[in-house]
Design brief:
The complex is a heterodimer of chains A (about 140) and B (about 400).
Chain A (H helix, E strand, L loop, with lengths): L4 H8 L14 E8 L4 E10 L4 E10 L2 H14 L4 H4 L4 H8 L6 H21 L14
Chain B lengths: L5 E2 L10 H7 L1 H4 L11 H20 L7 E4 L2 H15 L6 E5 L4 H12 L3 E5 L9 H7 L4 E5 L13 H10 L3 E5 L11 H4 L3 E5 L10 E5 L28 H36 L5 E3 L10 E6 L4 H6 L5 E2 L1 E2 L12 H5 L4 H5 L1 E5 L6 H20 L2 H7 L13
Parallel strand pairs in B: 1-11, 3-4, 3-5, 5-6, 6-7
Antiparallel strand pairs in B: 2-8, 7-8, 9-10, 10-13, 12-13
Helix pairs in contact in B: 1-9, 3-9, 4-5, 9-13
Classes of the chains: A alpha+beta (about 140), B alpha/beta (about 400).
Amino acid sequence: MAYSEKVIDHYQNPKNVGTLDKASKNVGTGLVGAPECGDVMRLQIEVNPENGMITDAKFKTFGCGSAIASSSLATEWLKGKSVDEALKIDNMTIVEELNLPPVKIHCSVLAEDAIKAAINDYREKNGMEKIKFEESVIH
Amino acid sequence: MLKLPIYLDNNATTPMDLRVLEAMTPYFMQHFGNAASRNHPFGWAAEEAVDYAREQVAKLIGADPKEIIFTSGATEADNLALKGVFEMYASKGNHIITVTTEHKAVLDTCKHIEKQGGEVTYLEVNNEGLIDLSALEAAIKPSTILIAVMYANNEIGTVMPIREISQIARKNGVLLFTDATQAVGKIPVDVNKDGIDLMAFTAHKMYGPKGVGALYVRRKNPRVKVTAQMDGGGHERGMRSGTLNVTGIVGFGKACELCMQEMEADAKRISVLRDKLQTALMQIEEAYVNGSQEHRLPHVANISFKHVEGEGLLMGFNKNIALSSGSACTSASLEPSYVLKALGLGDDLAHSSLRFGLSRFTTEEEIDYTIKAITDTVLKLREMSPLWEMYKEGIDLNTIEWAGH
């Protein structure tokens, strides 16, 4: 299977690998996937509580190149967005940007789920109600 | 000089030896005859070449040339052995005993036989990939006609105790079939000393061409017969119809002859390189060798690197090193290796495995390069792995409720 150049680039030079302080009130953490499935993604956002803007995003991913690339791309897109805008990131946009083949679509779904989970973690920490998302189709 | 890419996927297929190619060349155009053409020199030349190759092949496994049935490869030989025995010995019984870690060519054929009214017992293996001989003996019943156990496993290289298995088969009057695809040409295999009744093997795993293999079918003590699975001209003593692949067979014969001469020295040299590779990679934290290290092919090592995913790992160097992984992502099935799971490995370790298969042509320089590339990639990916971070923080990953798929 040949990877797209963008996937290879993100794999070789991943953006925003790292860890934010999980205990901080301004940090939301999303941990999705399972070791048994061969994919685990942890995506974290740091939010400015004044204006709801995402000031930083970090990830760590256990998975194939496409999973690593999807999460790397997601963190790039998250930075500088408001939390509300971040909710609009759709897995298919990731698929298109990275040219993922059909067998790798679940990697993008995981990235979308990780974003949502991180946002909900942030909301919960700050006394907001969790948003109910529809179950992802591909699971 | 180190030449990239490096090929370490020799359990999938081996490169051909130049000497094999040279033996084959005249049979493409000059001696192109049909070995079944009995009445002209073109046919005679082809027949003579096939006869000679049959001797070379037989000699490597200690068989009589008449006991070699040429096929298109090991998959066909597996099919012919299993289905052929099932049909031929139908009046005697319908029960076959095999093992969960067999190649798909055996397992799927057994599934087919079950649909045809056969009964199949799948023996489990222990964490080294070996079967329990007493469980084998206990599984035999009056309707058992065949025991099918591979000689050596394609993913982990574990070598089964074929002689002991044969003794059990003999004692109970059951035939023994072994898929020896990975073993023949790599370690000594002798159908008489080992007590094998049927055996599948193929040229392209031992530096020969693809598209040609053989089924050994015992002719004496006992005389074994299989029902043909293809109808036609009655070639190969009626067991396998179809014009013989003369060129391929010539190459197969030459490959066997070379293995006969060089196998011992090859195995010695390759196992030193394999051990060097394994020892170096085991210096990495949380690395595990899969399968038996005592009963193992000399050129194989299967190693899991915990908390890194196999396909992601391969991507770090697969432009320069050809390897395969037990990770689901590298196969179409989305399931990690069933062989590794049969050893009792968790899915996480099965997803994290790499299979190394060295060859006659592997050099120490290549192994040194591979050690460095893999070590670097594992360390890099662990820096990126949330599981590794949790492990390092002392979190028991089993206590986490994963939002699984």
